[in-house]
Each structure stands twice: as C-alpha cells, then as structure tokens.
Amino acid sequence: MTTITSVGSKPGRAWGILSLIAVAVPLPFLFVLNILSLVVRNQVGQGTTVEATVYGLIAFGGLFFFPVLFVLATVLAVAAVRRPRPAGKVMGWITIVIVILAIPASWFGYLVWITNSR
C-alpha cells in the first residue's frame, strides 16, 4: 500500500495574505472618494464640475466594488484566523480591523454623494 503525502503551503498565512490584498485594493479609492466628497460638499456654484463628475463615477463604482471586496476580505480573514498559523491570524485580524474602520469612511463618502445629488 502506498501513501502519498505532500507538504502544502501554510494555509493560515496564504489566507492572511489574500485577505490583506483583498482589503488593500479598495482603500485608495476610498481615500479618493472621501477627498472628493469634501470638494463636492464645499462647492459654491451650481452645475456639473469635473470634480463632481469624477466623484460620481468613483462613488458609483464603489457602490458595486467596495462591498464585494470588503466581504471577500472578511471571508478570507476569518479563514486565516481559524487556521492554526500565527502569521495568518495576525494578518486576518489586521484585515478585520481595516474593514471595520473603513465602514464609517465609506458611509461618509456615500452620504455626501447622496445628499449632494438632490
């Protein structure tokens, strides 16, 4: 009888790296969204400006991509935390903290977009 075994990669570490990648992708867009929300909110004149148009496109894309990426990052982070590797647990908890801190920032950006689109 032959037994075949293989040495796999450390599962917790791999899930932790994937979760950090998934949470890092939307963060620059979230930063730009909040900066542009301040620009649009402090706008004096009426009409469409370049900033308002760019802000609307980023906010529209964010409505679709931020929740999907944050849910994906959370799922991967939970998978990393449940594995027995310490490196994966640390990266998983970092991802969970980033997602929790990003929720108010994304809500602020969308709130300004919603109130200014009326």
Helix content: over 70%
What proportion strand?
A: under 5%
Order of helices and strands: HHHH
* Cα-based radius of gyration, to the nearest Å: 19 Å
Shape: elongated
Structural class: mainly alpha
Largest β sheet strand count, sense and barrel closure: none
Distance between the termini: 73 Å
Count of strand segments: 0
Any low-confidence stretches, pLDDT <50, length ≥5? none
Number of helices: 4
Looking at the chains present, what oligomeric state does this protein adopt? single chain
How much is the average pLDDT? 76
Q: Could you please describe the fold and organization of this structure?
A:
This protein is mainly alpha-helical and about 120 residues long. It has helices at about 10-25, 25-40, 50-80, 85-115.
